[in-house]
Amino acid sequence: RLRVYCTDQANSCVPKAVRVAGAGEPVLVPTVPGAHVMDLAAQVDADLAAGLRPFAVVATVGTTSTGAVDPVTDLARHCRRYGLWLHLDGAHGAAFALSARGHDMREALGQADSLTFDPHKWLFQPYETGCVLVRDPELLKATFRMARHHLDTGYLHPAEARHGEVNFDDLGPQQSRGLRALKVWLSLKTFGAAAFRRAVEHGLHLSDHAAARIAAHPGLELTSTPSLAILTFRCRPTDGSADPATVDRLQQSVSDAVRATGQALVLTTRVRNRTVLRMCTINPATTPADIDATLELVLQTALAR
Ligand SMILES: Cc1ncc(COP(=O)(O)O)c(C=O)c1O
């Protein structure tokens, strides 16, 4: 009877987490056509009327496929109104808040009850450094604190006994753990936040550059505008074929062939139920010339099909 809401563009980790939490399957709220963002209106009312128990919304800040951003401020208002927990999946997109363009996102992220963020994505860290930030850390302690379990082994002492020291055992399900945060801390200390800001802005610039090239080329078609350094597009078949299955197969075969060259990774995804090519331009070592060369490779590969 518990209800968690997300869109069909949420990452597969969302249904997995909801299942593990014992809340069944998330309700897939339709997205606004063309925008891939959540339209929660009416859904919660209908569920309450049906005697169900809405309790959380998972909104995405930077969907995996197209980098779309759910309307966080609207959703936060809905959540406050209905007393729902708002979780933001910012695994990819939260880093955007570092950039000048992403300034407004800082306020949006601040409305979450919890936020996931993967420094191993747009903060360029080695796998893996996924983390969750929670507005009220006392809730974590109330859930995970070792002392909560009333075992009296006399061996491990609750954190309170250690002068306020942070004990990660008390903040999550994992007990023995490595110091994953060290690499994030070390690279921030070494390069400074400004270097990360510049690198994020570079990724945004590259996706704008790619979109302009695609829009200007008759052999290519943009299928979603760049959002958080992700964009999608397709090759137009050289024989003018408009058959959707043929056009979809072309994208897949171009992606496979480009990948096989080892020069670039342009994977496919689905947008409005069609196969499209997807570029994610966050590598700070990539240059505009690399983008041009990749698009040229895509075009030549499509020509050869
Ligand atoms: C929006 C989003 N959320 C979550 C994930 C899961 O990432 P990971 O398993 O690397 O933490 C991804 C991965 O692509 C993602 O794009």
Automatic annotation (TrEMBL):
GO terms for molecular function: aromatic-L-amino-acid decarboxylase activity; pyridoxal phosphate binding; transaminase activity. InterPro entries: Aromatic_deC, PyrdxlP-dep_de-COase, PyrdxlP-dep_Trfase, PyrdxlP-dep_Trfase_major, PyrdxlP-dep_Trfase_small. Coiled coil: none annotated. The keyword Transmembrane does not apply. SUPFAM superfamilies: PLP-dependent transferases. The keyword Electron transport does not apply. The modification N6-(pyridoxal phosphate)lysine is found at K121. It comes from the Bacteria. GO terms for biological process: carboxylic acid metabolic process. Keywords: Aminotransferase, Decarboxylase, Lyase, Pyridoxal phosphate, Transferase. Its cofactor is pyridoxal 5'-phosphate. Belongs to the group II decarboxylase family. This is Aminotransferase class V-fold PLP-dependent enzyme. It comes from Streptomyces alkaliterrae.
